[in-house]
């Protein structure tokens, strides 16, 4: 999914398919271990913004993944924000389609 979105979205560069798998793994690990801590620390802002600050947190996870994984490059915060929104929507769509087939 990362490789497909990177091909469609200007400003996101993935070197090869191995890098896209590595991005998916690192992003999953960041979402498991780091994201919950950030959500807890920013809970007042998240509540005040009615949950929209979670989009900013997702973009920060993409930017962090950019720093960790070589061969994956996101040029700006706004591109990372759009990338995270598209990734979330596409994962939700795939999950709902796979749930219908069961």
Mean pLDDT over the residues: 93
> What gyration radius follows from the Cα positions, in whole Å?
14 Å
Report, as a whole number of angstroms, the end-to-end distance. Answer: 22 Å
Secondary structure tally, helices: 6
Secondary-structure element order, N to C: HEHHHHEH
User: How would a textbook summarize the main sheet?
Assistant: 2 strands, antiparallel
Structural class: mainly alpha
Description:
The protein is mainly alpha-helical and about 100 residues long. Helix content is about 75%, strand content about 5%. It contains six helices and two strands. The chain has helices at about 1-10, 15-35, 35-40, 45-50, 55-70, 75-100; strands at about 10-15, 70-75. It has a two-stranded antiparallel ribbon. α5 (about 55-70) crosses α6 (about 75-100). The longest helix is centred in the last third of the chain and has 24 residues, at about 75-100. The radius of gyration is 14 Å and the shape is globular. The relative contact order is 0.17. The mean pLDDT is about 95.
């Amino acid at each position: 999914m990362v490789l497909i979105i990177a091909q469609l979205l200007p400003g996101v560069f993935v070197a090869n398919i191995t890098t896209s798998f590595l991005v998916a793994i690192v992003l999953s690990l960041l979402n498991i271990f780091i994201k919950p801590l950030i959500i807890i620390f920013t809970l007042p802002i998240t509540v005040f913004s009615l949950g929209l600050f979670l989009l900013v947190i997702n973009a920060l996870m993409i930017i962090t993944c950019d720093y960790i994984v070589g061969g994956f490059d996101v040029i700006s915060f706004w591109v990372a924000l759009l990338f995270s929104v598209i990734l979330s929507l596409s994962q939700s769509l795939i999950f709902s389609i796979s749930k219908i087939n069961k």
